[in-house]
Amino acid sequence: MKKKFSRVAMGSLFFASALVASTVAAPVAQAAVIDVEIGKYTSLDNDYPVVNQTGETKGNFALTAGALAELQIILKGDKLATLKVPEELVGKINPDGDAEVQVGFTIDLTEISLVDQLLTAAETAVGTLAYLIDSQSLFGLKTNFQEVNEALKAFDYLRNLNVSVTSSQITVLDGGEYMQVQFDDATMRFIANKISEAVDNLQAAILAFELSGTGVISSAVAGLIDVALVPVKAIINALLEVVPCIANGFADITKFFGAATMFKESTVTFPTAMDLPMEWFEEFAPNGLTVNFLGTIVEPGILEFEFFEKENNDNVSPVVFADIVKPVTPVIKEIAGDKDTGYTLLVTAEAGSTVNVKDPEGNVIGTAVVPGTADGKTQADVTVTVKGDAVKEGTDCDVTATDAAGNESDAAIAQLGDKVEPVEIFRAYNPNSGEHLYTPSEKEMGEVIAAGWDDEGTAWYATSRGNTVYRLYNPNSGEHFYTLSEKEYEEVAEAGWKKEGSTFFSNEEEEVEIFRVFNPNAQGPGSHHYTVYGEERDGLVDLGWTDEAVAFYGMAVAE
Prior knowledge:
This protein is of the alpha+beta class. The protein is built from 13 helices and 32 strands. The chain has three domains: 10-112 and 161-187 and 227-321, no CATH class; 331-416, Sandwich (Immunoglobulin-like), CATH 2.60.40.10; 422-557, no CATH class.
């Protein structure tokens, strides 16, 4: 006859029940008390991505204890799963909900005394019942034995029992140095509860079992059935007295199960979240960082993390932080050279970074790698060269440092060559001679005004350097003449004018045009006039003056 169930049951099951861990001080004891090298059979993994941003990042740590460790630990009562946080993250990483505790096991029901007796008695009863039911047509019997058969099959369900999943509160200890989960014998109580359910169902089916028929033979058969079920009923009653107490934690679990349950492995998953500001990266990960978390599952009172800190141990799990910190702004210590010889910049910047000098359009016009080992903190000097014709003199250029991760610093400003500053050109008018004087000198302006000239304010803004504008003075008429041409300057001097050298400069950028017109009818001072206004030039030309085009250039028009 084919048996309806097996004495050894194995399989799979998923369930959830809440367990609340009590607060316990971080346990520390000497590793010598541990009977097995738990570190060999404990592994820690995490699913954190490379952390490359500030703010919140979430991840899970899965701490798994293998079978050899479990034999020493999990059958003895409460267990502790502990995660040791690296010092850089103490107080920065926290639980993100309850931990999931998953326990894998196998069950040999023959090792549980009462269950083994039930299985043996049930086999005998099933044989008797099956024979009677197969022969019921001979006796005119009718039965609902199918319910009993289904209840007996419920024990086959236990062969699908090999994983339990519970949840447990995570306790943070020692200011965030440890995260700990305490879990107890819930797995074994759960197994007991499932056995209790199976026994309950079998009892209900037997109580509901009925035979119907007539005559002496029917009565005799009913008596045989009662005899067959007596042992089964007795063991059911015994189990129903013990198993619920075990399931509710009121009985000795170890005594009941004996060697019936073999634990394969336990996995405790810690959901966590860290919220890191840029200041944290600047302090701890200026050049990137890898930190190691440690984990173990042991009994309370047995924990020594240093014991597990061995090279290549599986209970060490790294989390990697990318370099997202930009280098500090470079310091420009010295700028030498000119447009003819080129420029050299002595710059202090992050070791290992690349210093770039950029023109106003962002083009790199000079670059150099800072010597030294990149650690995100060490600074060193480097010399950067720039060609003299790369930019015009006085140009403000950005100087930045870019590290190996591509982070670019804020820019320092380097002025290559003398800076071109605006120079105010004053205009005064002599009402007696009709002459205009153009001068950058406040002293000279004050002197002519004191002599009776009219102050006409600012004519335009010239540049602090550029192409020389020459000035000559006619001692006979008192007139001044201005020219950008050195050749014309010499020719006018040869005609008797007095050289007065350079009084201001013409803008090399040729931004503002200064027009010159000549009065061919003038017999004295005022034969030449200079203006930034095209309409003034055109008005004089309409009066008979000669347009002599652009004489030189200014930087800006006076408002």
